[in-house]
Amino acid sequence: MTWPNFQFQQADLESRCAIPPDDPREYCEVNLLYGAARLIREYAGLPLHEPLPWAVQHLINFKEDRIPPSVLRSNLPHLLTITADEHAGQQAKNLNVSRVPARAKTGDKEAESLADLGFTHHAPIGTPFLYAREVYRMRNLEDDSMERRGTIVFPDKSDYGKEVDYDRDGWVKFLVDLPEEYQPVYVGIFWRDYLRGVHEPFARAGLPLVTAGHSNDPDFYLRLYDICRRFKYACSNEISTSFCLSVISGCKFFFKSTGAQTVARGGVVETFAEEPSLDRPGKARCLEVSPFPPVEDDGGKQRELAELYSGVKFLRPPEFFRELWEPGREALSRGMTTAALDFTAEPRPPRPDFARWLPHGFDPDGVGDDRCGLEFGSLAGQAGVEMLIRVSKTPENPKQTLTVILGGDTSQVHEYKAVEGLITIRIRQRRDAQRRTASFLAGAPKAARDKPKRKAIRLLKISWCESFADSDMVLG
To answer: Is the separation of the CB atoms in 60 and 283 below 8 Å?
Structure first.
């Protein structure tokens, strides 16, 4: 077996780094990042096609008392964080309520707790990367006989809305001149910097390039773990997530300053004498234990900090997520109102409002996969729901059939054959006040499976009905 023998393809970096179609299926958009949602589903044995009913923190902050605002603004009732955040209430208090537009507040009152922000449940689970390690093992991809060699380098990176630049040529010289102990040197390039072309100084010097892929690649964390576990050392010119994840993957980490840095955001360019976040307390602690050459303490201090900030002690067993699955979905469904959703209007219905219908296989525009569906409970004074659906037939499917499968107190299958255009579907709510499931099946256009918006089903409108006419065909 030839080292490094990556288990995940690294030959075509251009396709790995390409921006994928904007085709979100998660109730909380940040759950898409780095494959977190799919990893947790696979690890816990949850339905692979259904979105997670919780907001999951992905960003390691190096501060035990801070939850990212992007997660706090998720508007889902259940929150899963990296660490046991004892100061979460104070963080909520510091977050101006005006930045959480979908949470109803009285007057100008600021949030003083996570409950004020609408979270009914909060639990630490560690970084989602921990579940990539577990899934990697579950897939039997590990090889205990593999020898660690060389150094994997994680350059400070650009991202959405941010471009980072520094003396890359000087850093390349440092890497090429590293002693034999640290060779060979591979460079882990972030997708945004590959698309910018700033990987070229490394490539010109003959340094092999690898990538974990685009941030929305469901294999991102699996690919990153596959990379890290093959190297003895990891190196970066910043202290960031790569410090924690490379160290808990078994690497010894060392920091190398590249001096002055420019950061461009929204047309504003700032210049710093050094990477600007290094003086933050948590990062400063990590920097202190990451000199070059690495200290000979078997990496103990690094591991202690990496495990602290990664929440390693909060790794949960699969049963934890399975037991939280239905309570999370029920908490979402309880937020249902009689407000209608119109996917033909601008702006589109807010993602949290659609999430209360527990949809699966639908994107935020109502475009459905060839297998999609939703669930709804019972509301007082309502008879059921009415949905307006557009069904498209294609040359591949000239006699399109839409199959509606109802589950709940009764099961029912109804087929609309040789259909095209608009269909109104009416479904009664359950008599026992429990949720009813409605699943839709239709043949997808074969020539358009890679085009997310060209599907056979699109949900246009959904609304509650106080009653149905005697002439209406009503399912359920």
So the answer is: no
Tens digits of pLDDT across the chain (476 residues): 688 999 998 889 999 999 887 667 899 888 999 999 999 999 999 999 899 999 999 989 887 556 667 677 677 889 998 987 544 544 444 444 333 433 433 334 445 567 767 788 889 999 999 999 999 999 999 887 788 999 999 999 998 889 999 999 999 999 999 999 999 999 999 999 999 999 999 999 999 999 999 999 999 999 999 999 999 999 999 999 999 999 999 999 999 999 999 999 988 999 999 999 999 999 999 999 999 998 876 669 999 999 999 999 999 999 999 999 999 999 999 888 999 999 999 988 988 899 999 999 998 889 988 889 999 999 999 999 999 998 887 666 666 778 899 986 567 888 877 667 888 999 999 988 889 999 998 865 544 445 545 578 899 999 999 999 987 888 88
Contact 77, 115 (CB under 8 A): no
| pTM for the full predicted model | 0.90
Query: Packing angle between helix 300-310 and helix 241-248, nearest 10 degrees?
Result: 120
Virtual CA dihedral for 23, 26, 28, 30, nearest 10 degrees? -60
DSSP secondary structure letter of residue 70 = H
Q: Give me the residue label for tokens 């590959």.
A: 194
Helix ranges restricted to H, 139-209: 168-176, 191-196, 200-204
Cis peptide leading into residue 445 (ω within 30°): no
Supply 6's token pair: 């990556």
Q: What are the φ/ψ torsions at residue 176 (nearest 5 degrees)?
A: -65, -35
Strand-strand pairing, 367-376 and 457-465: antiparallel
Half-sphere exposure of 174 (CA within 13 A, CB side): 20
Strands 163-166 and 261-265: antiparallel
Max CA distance (Å), the chain: 84
| Cβ-contact 235, 153 below 8 angstroms | yes
